[in-house]
Amino acid sequence: MFQRLREDIACILERDPAARSSWEVLTCYPGLHALVLHRRAHWFWQRGWLWLGRFISHLGRFVSGIEIHPGARIGRRVFIDHGMGVVIGETAEIGDDCTIYQGVTLGGTSLAKGAKRHPTLGRGVIVGANSQVLGGFTVGDNARVGSNAVVLKPVPAGATAVGNPARIIDAQADAEREATAAKMGFSAYGITQGDDPVAQAMKGLIDHAATQEHQITLLWQAIETLSARPGAHAGTDCVPPDAQTTDQFDAAGLSQLVK
């Protein structure tokens, strides 16, 4: 019991720069209070003391503003930051090292009793403020759910879900896009990576420019190879000295296009 409490306090001190001491965390953090009371409620719930488990859960809601059903399973070092308005359903499962912000709902969309109605969060998941994760699916390890997202389907491990209804962001594609933008002297993060139509148009231009440049580079490289062969046909030695045979952007020219 005390080992779990020490773990909880340590993880809060690690993840919240506003936390100044263990005593402050122990006495002033409703997320910690809710988890301590939930463990007792869950203990009674598993042993068939259903009313007592629900009553302790109700007290925890009154004290902390966080409602956790006593049937929910919560791992170690979970941090519920601020916590007001958090609702965690009966069949929800939360893995170790997760972080949940205020206003989050881990809810269900099915009315079938005994079924898996609420989501499962893997290890290290971060669920942003006021987001809703609804259904009996899994959010993979180290995934992220953006603030105000409404997630209705599984989220792969390491992915990010944003929007309403939530869409999955391809982390690899975004990383490649940012690298391309940096080569142009332009950062997509400077505008947004959300659903702003201007940002979406810029992403399309960046992707299109990267594809075009790559294709042109391959063509010039092929021509250069042909012209360098012994006995090449007359006329194949036509690679101009300024031909683009490596991937690089004309940053100044592209900057004029995006002004």
Structural class of the secondary structure composition? alpha/beta
Per DSSP E runs of 2 or more residues, the count of β-strands stands at 15
Strand order across the largest sheet: 3-6-9-12-14-15
Helical residue percent band: 40-55%
* Overall structural domain count: 2
Q: Tell me what the CATH architecture of the largest domain is.
A: 3 Solenoid
Q: Can you identify the CATH superfamily of the largest domain?
A: Hexapeptide repeat proteins
Uncertain spans, ≥5 residues at pLDDT below 50? 186-192
Q: Count of helices?
A: 7
Beta-strand residue percentage = 5-15%
- Quaternary organisation of the protein chains: single chain
The overall pLDDT average reads: 81
Largest beta sheet, briefly?
6 strands, mixed
CATH topology of the largest domain: UDP N-Acetylglucosamine Acyltransferase, domain 1
**How far from one another are the termini?**
60 Å
| Molecular shape | elongated
Order of helices and strands: HHHHEEEEEEEEEEEEEEEHHH
User: How large is the radius of gyration?
Assistant: 27 Å
Brief overview:
The protein has helices at 2-15, 22-28, 30-46, 50-64, 171-183, 197-228, 251-257, and strands at 67-68, 73-74, 79-80, 87-88, 93-94, 99-100, 105-107, 120-121, 126-127, 132-134, 138-139, 144-145, 150-151, 160-162, 167-169. It has 259 residues and is of the alpha/beta class.
